[in-house]
Amino acid sequence: xxxxxxxxxxxxxxxxxxxxxxxxxxxxxxxxxxxxxxxxxxxxxxxxxxxxxxxxxxxxxxxxxxxxxxxxxxxxxxxxxxxxxxxxxxxxxxxxxxxxxxxxxxxxxxxxxxxxxxxxxxxxxxxxxxxxxxxxxxxxxxxxxxxxxxxxxxxxxxxxxxxxxxxxxxxxxxxxxxxxxxxxxxxxxxx
Amino acid sequence: xxxxxxxxxxxxxxxxxxxxxxxxxxxxxxxxxxxxxxxxxxxxxxxxxxxxxxxxxxxxxxxxxxxxxxxxxxxxxxxxxxxxxxxxxxxxxxxxxxxxxxxxxxxxxxxxxxxxxxxxxxxxxxxxxxxxxxxxxxxxxxxxxxxxxxxxxxxxxxxxxxxx
Amino acid sequence: xxxxxxxxxxxxxxxxxxxxxxxxxxxxxxxxxxxxxxxxxxxxxxxxxxxxxxxxxxxxxxxxxxxxxxxxxxxxxxxxxxxxxxxxxxxxxxxxxxxxxxxxxxxxxxxxxxxxxxxxxxxxxxxxxxxxxxxxxxxxxxxxxxxxxxxxxxxxxxxxxxxxxxxxxxxxxxxxxxxxxxxxxxxxxxxxxxxxxxxxxxxxxxxxxxxxxxxxxxxxxxxxxxxxxxxxxxxxxxxxxxxxxxxxxxxxxxxxxxxxxxxxxxxxxxxxxxxxxxxxxxxxxxxxxxxxxxxxxxxxxxxxxxxxxxxxxxxxxxxxxxxxxxxxxxxxxxxxxxxxxxxxxxxxxxxxxxxxxxxxxxxxxxxxxxxxxxxxxxxxxxxxxxxxxxxxxxxxxxxxxxxxxxxxxxxxxxxxxxxxxxxxxxxxxxxxxxxxxxxxxxxxxxxxxxxxxxxxxxxxxxxxxxxxxxxxxxxxxxxxxxxxxxxxxxxxxxxxxxxxxxxxxxxxxxxxxxxxxxxxxxxxxxxxxxxxxxxxxxxxxxxxxxxxxxxxxxxxxxxxxxxxxxxxxxxxxxxxxxxxxxxxxxxxxxxxxxxxxxxxxxxxxxxxxxxxxxxxxxxxxxxxxxxxxxxxxxxxxxxxxxxxxxxxxxxxxxxxxxxxxxxxxxxxxxxxxxxxxxxxxxxxxxxxxxxxxxxxxxxxxxxxxxxxxxxxxxxxxxxx
Lengths: 191, 164, 720
Fold this sequence. Notes:
The structure holds 3 protein chains of 3 kinds. By secondary structure, chain A is mainly alpha-helical. Chain A has helices at 2-9, 25-42, 45-48, 84-87, 118-126, 136-145, 147-150, 171-183, and strands at residues 58-59, 64-65. The radius of gyration of chain A is 17 Å and the shape is globular. Chain B is α+β, with helices and mostly antiparallel strands. Helix content of chain B is 38%, strand content 14%. In chain B, helix 3 (86-93) packs across helix 6 (138-159). In chain C, a hairpin with a 5-residue loop joins strand 20 (438-446) and strand 21. Chain C starts with 16 loop residues before the first strand and ends in a 12-residue tail after the last helix. The chains are: A mainly alpha, B alpha+beta, C alpha+beta. Chains in contact: A-B, A-C, B-C. Chain B: Keywords: 2Fe-2S, Iron, Iron-sulfur, Metal-binding, Oxidoreductase. Chain B: Residues 1-78 form the 2Fe-2S ferredoxin-type domain.
């Protein structure tokens, strides 16, 4: 059913995403640096844990499957009665250690990143067939302004009361890198 | 700070210093409703499950500030001996509880499930009912959940006969 | 077999007395019940068959029944209700002899102030079996006392009276028990209680609904954590995360200034904080900086190597014929992990220490020991402390150890108000009294007929009974083995000419103790897995192979009947059908034999248990429905332990400390069908709450062996 609906909304896949060509060598180098900085973040468990390749959210720095077999459900927000919001609110919980953020949920199945390398993730992210039909501008906005994305730098503490690991790049640097990459034409370097 | 909420149909205004105090402790220690249980404090066991605006919530992981203006239902408000909820009726008929400690959380989770899925399959039950019971009453619980669904559907049928 | 025969246990008439007051018409304090010295008994009876009875005080009268103006009898139970259905069984037994209806009996926990203290604790699956005789006798005396007074008041002879539902009648006149009691000051106590014929019982033997059912379904405040006292404060205690950590010093300045903090209580052995709310106490606890002296970080492999047969002290607990020698011996080893109790209600207590008396409300399985520990810490007489036990949110042996009552009492004394102290879940997991890990070596040899010529069980366990306040220190040296660890460690195959069981004892660097069924779960897993392997080797049917090796004595006959019935009922077959294989195992615990047949498949490399057939011979079934419930619960709790659970020592700490990482069976893992068959191989009630845990591990492993060819030798059972 879901597949049928999708097919009627989205056009069939014709081509994979192709980036805007950029000629200048120097530009390319800067773009590559920005790209890698951005991807250092997007490949961190703080981001990947909610972009699983299956239907199971992941937890922790070791990205283990969410305990109690929690899964995506129809809405990407858990099962019908027991859902993300049963335990996760719009903020991190200082007492239970349950992380939280507005619209706490899994990325849709089309945005499965786990198991992909950084180049494949970037491709997926920019591919309107897979990114929810977002334009590059919308993706940039998502990466730099979305609460759930930025939660990565305020992930709270784990069940032992220890701070969760932050992405390897600061929030400020990440946002600059994302902006630089998009402004310079969002070219995905070759592997 | 002051927080207003409706618990089991009654309005309460609660004065608190820590707005992150888990709703669980407000319900138990300030309002004195002990049916909602503390099991782990980490949203892992489900013993503290109650309803916030009809949705199942683990109250040990729910800062009281989010309850502002909300309708809270606890096991005491789900039903009582004079007017039992179908879930409670089914639980009694199947003689589900052993130690009984986890049972309110399970019944609240089940009541929420039946509101979303009036006829849950075994798979729906497996997905949604993931609280922990140490005595091992799951076997009777599953029977009680199906029975509760039948009871609730029968009641709904009487109340809204035209709505198939 | 240690049955509780009436001939062994006589009521002592002079001990009966009757009190008035307490706002009821007549308070009947009847006591005491005959006792046997627990130490002697422990030595005299093989611990594997221990069927310990009620052991109350010898001297003081104690309160059993209280009669209200509404003609309701309150039974003060010396046994704790922790889910096992004891209150319901006791109510049935008492109601039948009291001649009252179930709706007119109420069961409450006896406080220590009633004098009705059971020195044997609540545990060991003995509550119903132990009280079967004494409680019915006490109830019968109560009934006869009523009849004697009624006869006087009605002017008829006792023989002319009839009793029904708490009303005594003769001719057309009748009096309720409450009316009879009015004005009576000098009760006549009958010489000897005359018990009714079991066949005339209205409640015993029937699936009466639990007496606590409504309270548990409507959320009544009944558990230890629900207890409250006026002006109560909340306490928390700082505990180390590392095994063997010793308290050196604490810096409390920061905590003292935290919101809601009333007082920091520093003692030689702990630091506690008292605050106005639970959350404030917990927050302040986190702010206390403690310096601990910690030994070298222990790791799991060190625990495993400590727990290896050959380490520690050995005792031969069973020996028949010769030791196995030669090249034709089959040998296998098995292991079980550290297990947590993981009961859902954390430990908790409310203590109020006043000038010369203390009140303790607590989830405990050992009210007498709780009282003793509190009174000795306060330097008081035991009678100055009243312990009010509550319903337990799970017991499983965890509440046989209650030092937190002492800590709450000390904190209460320091602030002069009641203090409630609740364990955090982390505290609960890190400071559990764990089920000890075990290691087993099984040896066997087949004879020419393909039967066992020799069978040996060599096993090692940590403390279960040893170092527990419940077992007097004199017991281990005399018995020579840990009376808890050896439960289930005996070989039930009495017809095997050469068989022996050798127990090795190692005390671990962290506390291990009683866990539902004690050694039974792990011991049966090892023994019955091995016996099954020998049956396969012999090319024989798993059940036929076992039946051939059990003698036809009384215990053997009951065991064989259980095995046979399980096979028939489940349609046991060695064939694999629709991807499912069957597995069989049997055990005897506390005199109760039990057999399981499981149907198992493997899906995504995970073990799935579809159906379990349980056949149990608990003797006379006081409440068949609750016995079934215990069987279902044992199957699921056992599956949880066998398939999922394990604690590990990592960098000196016991981990994990939360459900989820401490994986347990959930709804989805429970079998869709549990078929329970009850047999009655003796005419008195036997043990129920633990025996059905025995066979589950081996039954599953035996099914997996048939399905996959793999012999799983370590709990939790995993295919990868």
